[in-house]
Amino acid sequence: MKIVIVGTGYVGLVTGACFSEVGIDVTCVDIDENKIEKLKKGIIPIYEPGLEKMVQRNMEKGRLHFSAILSESLEGAQVVFGAVGTPPDEDGSADLKYVLDVAREIGTHMNDYVLIVTKSTVPVGTAEKVRAVIKDTLDKRGANIEFDVASNPEFLKEGAAVEDFLKPDRIVVGVDSDRARKLMERLYKPFTMNGHPIIFMDVVSAEMTKYAANAMLATKISFMNDMANLSEIVGADINMVRKGIGSDRRIGKYFIYPGTGYGGSCFPKDVKALINTAREFGYEMSVLQAVEDVNELQKSVLFRKAQKYFDNDLKGKTFAVWGLSFKPQTDDMREAPSLVIIDNLVSAGANVKAYDPVAMNEAQRIIGDKVAYATDQYDALQDVDGLFLITEWPEFKFPNFVRVRDLMRNRVVFDGRNVYDAGEMKELGFDYFGIGTGNKAG
Question: Torsions phi, psi of 88, nearest 5?
């Protein structure tokens, strides 16, 4: 079976590599010729555990190919996945330019039946727009070629994407023809044979499922951050509250950890897009609007704690920032809380020394010379007035606290992930501020 993946970003590259891993012939296409040339050499543009070796292995076995020319790749392909970006417009809606450009090019060059599958996260109704563009393009050619359009949203966690794809909780597929369904059943047979469920539904419902899933997870995060802030005010410990509610099977223990807000490429964009979609249909998503508002406020919560601790005078002080990516096991800094915290500190006249195990190059690209970049986590602590822990990378969880204490000029820690124990930190001689732990300093 031969398939084509258009777009070699995070979703497209993981999808292509994992399909090739189960024996499918895959060609990944991208208009960025420089990226394609690097991929042909086994150099991947993102950090994702296990992905680079998988790409190299399947290239060597002749199952994974890369091309900058879609028209040449379509020959013999039964399924074409669209995995291009859908960046937010100014109003928060998803920009479908690249999605529709791909549809137009497919319509221009296809010569036989093909199933076009939307893998990008797109608003409800996108499949019909894709269908209309392809049909219009075929009509202009005077070509009467059958095709189908399907939706197959991705549910990959950055940092665990390969595992998520190979061992999915569920595979959601939206189709409107038996032919399309049979093709998708065949394509995913290596996964369903291993017991991973595939859920077929109509195309519109599949499109909605992706947004609903991310919106629900974002809601849980903002709810817990709201509860953490209230717990801090009344003197409760959100860590205890979390354990108390997480034991309820109706709530569950996942995504109920308070912190500095969600970031990344999915939650912020998808929440905004769903709010915008609702408005287009005359409906206000009041809960999701609150989710977004709480999240934006939460990104500054540690900065507000620092302001209070230092009597609103941060000018000339130096702070270490541990963790720059929006979550561990990725170099993705899109919408990362670290960016907001660093901007706040610099605007207040403070100096910042930053360190991340993986995202340093990405940080330099985004932040530039506004901060100093440390060579390791301890280098970042030399003579600083405080430490901000933003991303809970494993190496930050059990540092040498005696060394940390000796390096710092002022021993205060602002823990954005509640990694450390407040009592132990006090015994070690630190002033410690977590999120929602009953500490009145924030």
Answer: -70, 140
